[in-house]
From TrEMBL:
Annotated family: Belongs to the protein kinase superfamily.
Name recorded for this polypeptide: Protein kinase domain-containing protein
GO biological process, one term: intracellular signal transduction
Domain Protein kinase: 21-281
Entry keyword annotation includes Repressor: no
Sequence positions that bind ATP: 53
SUPFAM superfamilies according to UniProt: Protein kinase-like (PK-like) (SSF56112)
GO molecular function per UniProt: ATP binding; protein serine/threonine kinase activity
Keywords: ATP-binding, Kinase, Nucleotide-binding, Serine/threonine-protein kinase, Transferase
Regions crossing the membrane: none
CDD domains reported for this sequence: PKc
GO cellular component, one term: cytoplasm
Amino acid sequence: MCNDSDLIPLRTAIVVNEATYSVVGLLGRGYFGAVSHIRRKLPSGKIQNLALKEQKRTEGENELKMLLPLQDRDHPHIVRLFGFGPVGENFILALEHARYGDLETYVRKDEYYMEKKKARAFYGQLLRGIHFLHSHRVAHLDIKPVNVLVMSSGHCRITDFGVSALMTEEGLCRPAGSIAYQPPEHRGGPYRINGMWQDLWGAALIYVFMVIADTPWTSASPENTQYGWFRQGRIFRHGNDGWARFQQWDEYCHLQRLLHHHPDRRLVPAGYSDELKDSFAGLP
């Protein structure tokens, strides 16, 4: 059985905004479609590198509806869009190319894990990007390491708005996203979820991922062993070796508040604002 990505051709060249780009290589292929590294030589002589996302037209147009209105302010932590349009039965988005790839690859391959100071800085950038989205009533709904681009050793941007949705004034929207990065109250497929909490939960899990270099758990359900250990305070003894980097009691308490199973008792991180701050929920 094929999925949509099987129908996306492997191209050698593509026209974007009436300019021809050569395809350097494939960056990724999944259910959503395919992403390729493209480049061209500008009249100035400089080389322009972009990431070309190609998917079925309906999915591409829906993602554009979410992403295009966010481009007006050129937010430092939201991926930039350089071009878009239909190509046959498909739809392309020409996005900025990340020099260091996605965050999951960056952590696992290049560093194995991040120092906490750097992880806090990236976490703060994610929170500011998420706050910007929410101020436009957009819930990303799939905040996870592969959807964070590492532009430089100290700068990241949020990408992939394929399942994003507009929220009501109360922050409600349709459910979507990866199970491993959904909060426990979204288990069981409710008709409406709180998009703000889902994005903030995903960002907190990314912070943990950066420090321990592993996905904390596959599902925030009581039946999941890793998540159960976390709620019981046993993850530091029974989890993977990376959890040993969170041995201080105050660290565990802050993580418990950021990732509390009850949303009414969950901590809103201090970095969730438009202002630059040195402290993010007191994380040491």
